[in-house]
Each structure stands twice: as C-alpha cells, then as structure tokens.
From TrEMBL:
Chain positions covered by the region annotation Disordered: 1-20
Protein's UniProt name: Uncharacterized protein
Pfam short name (any one): LRR_6
UniProt cross-references to InterPro entries, sorted A to Z: Leu-rich_rpt, LRR_dom_sf, RanGap
Biological classification of the source: Eukaryota, Haptista, Haptophyta, Prymnesiophyceae, Prymnesiales
Annotated organism of origin: Haptolina brevifila
KW Coiled coil (keyword) present: no
Keyword terms, alphabetized: GTPase activation, Leucine-rich repeat, Repeat
GO BP term (any one): nucleocytoplasmic transport
Superkingdom in the source lineage: Eukaryota
C-alpha cells in the first residue's frame, strides 16, 4: 500500500486508491496504517473503488474509519470490492452495531455517502446495514 508515512495522509482531505489492485491483505495494511497515523482530522473523502479488498480488508478498515479517527469523513466509496455479507457485518459491528450502547455506536463515521454498489452483499449484509441505520449505529445520508 502506498501509505508509507504519516505525512502522506495526515494533511490530506482526500485519499484515492481506486483501481489500485488492492487485495484483502492490502486493505488490512491500509486499515492499520490509518489507525496508526490517526486521528486524520482533515480526511473527508476516501475512494477505494474497484479493488479486491474483500471481507478481510474491509473488516480492518472499519475500525480505522471510526468517527474518533476520521471525524470529517463524509464520503466512503467501496464500490466493486468483492465485499460480501461478512464484510458488511464486520463494517457495521466495527462501527458499533445495533446491539451496542449509544457510546459504542458513536464510533461510526458521519457519512454523507457510503457506496457499496457492485459488491456481493447478501440478505444478511443488507439486514445488518438496515439495522445499523435504524439503531443510529450508522449515520449516512445516501
């Protein structure tokens, strides 16, 4: 993953790793780096479209993209990444799912757009997203 130094990301309002052939292992590494380099006070947009992050990569990213670590994150584009229900469940659980306390749910970024189009999300993943939004565990406008 091209994130090698804190200075590469800490002052950025936008990170674009679209079409970068990132694997699940790369997603794990990116999540670890974003956590290590946080809080990322200026990051507003994260584009990860058309990679192969899969459930494993998204699971680690969820914790890195908490409201505490990315307080201004408004747009998260995960379109076409081979994310299945397990990845969506990990994403919503990582942000504080429906069963969590209000304090735990505050981990969710306050997103304007969460784009999960063209992934492999089944019924369980769709229900997890619905439950997270309904419970206030996921704040998202679109």
């Amino acid at each position: 993953v091209a994130v090698s130094k804190k200075s590469d990301v800490s002052e950025q309002s936008e990170l674009d790793y679209s079409h970068s052939e990132l694997s699940g292992a790369d997603g794990i590494e990116l999540g670890q780096k974003l956590t290590e380099y946080g809080p990322l006070e200026k990051l507003k947009h994260l584009y990860l479209e058309r990679n192969m992050l899969s459930d494993d990569g998204v699971s680690t990213l969820a914790g890195a993209l908490s409201h505490r670590n990315t307080p201004k994150l408004n747009r998260l584009i995960l379109r076409n990444n081979r994310i299945g229900s397990a990845g969506v469940i990990a994403l919503t659980d990582g942000w504080g799912g429906a069963d969590e306390s209000k304090a735990e749910r505050s981990r969710s970024p306050h997103l304007g757009i969460l784009d999960l189009e063209d992934n492999w999300i089944g019924d369980e993943g769709a229900l997890a997203l619905y439950a997270a939004v309904e419970s206030g565990g996921l704040f998202c406008n679109e």
